[in-house]
Every structure is written in C-alpha cells, then in structure tokens.
Amino acid sequence: MANWTAKQNKKFEEALALFDKETPDRWHNIARCVGGKSADEVRRHYELLVKDVMQIENDQIPLPNYRAAGSNGRSYANEQRLL
C-alpha cells in the first residue's frame, strides 16, 4: 500500500468527521478531500485504523518503553516536583 503523508492523514481524519458511515459515496468523498488516494485506498486505510484501535483497546499492543529519566538524569516525578 502506498505511503500516506502527515498532511493526507490529517485531511483523512477531518474528512472522517465530515462524512459518517451513512453518507452516500463516503469513500469517494473522503478520497477527494485527501487527494492523491483512491476510494479503495481510503477504505483500506480506515479498516487498518479500526483494526489498530481495536488492538489498542484490547491491550494487544504493548505500551512503549519510555525511559524513566530525561537526558539530564532527572526522573519524570522529580521534574513534576520541581514544577
């Protein structure tokens, strides 16, 4: 599948808010808003998004391993205390 730019993803998100599942020709309308993508590409992108959200909600995606300390050696809790 072709890569999506950050700008296309933003337009995709905005178009999803405009065209709900009851909208006739939803994927064609969203594709027009995104630009450079077909209705099928937009639909597949949406299906992947739904799959990702379901995996996150079902705790099937591991949490990122964030470092406990910042680059200056202070922990997040210590930085919060200082604020």
Automatic annotation (TrEMBL):
Please give a single GO biological process term from the UniProt record: determination of dorsal/ventral asymmetry
Q: Where is the Myb-like domain?
A: 1-50
Q: Which UniProt keywords apply?
A: Developmental protein, Nucleus, Transcription, Transcription regulation
Q: Can you tell me where the transmembrane regions are? A: none
| Location (main, coarse) | nucleus
- SMART domains attached to this UniProt entry: SANT (SM00717)
- Domain SANT, by residue range, is 1-54
* PROSITE patterns referenced in this protein's UniProt entry, alphabetically: MYB_LIKE, SANT
Q: Which GO terms describe its cellular component?
A: nucleus
Question: What GO annotations for molecular function exist for this entry?
Answer: DNA-binding transcription factor activity; transcription cis-regulatory region binding
Q: Where in the cell is it found?
A: Nucleus
Transcription listed as a keyword: yes
Q: What is this protein called?
A: RADIALIS
Q: Which organism is it from?
A: Anisodus acutangulus
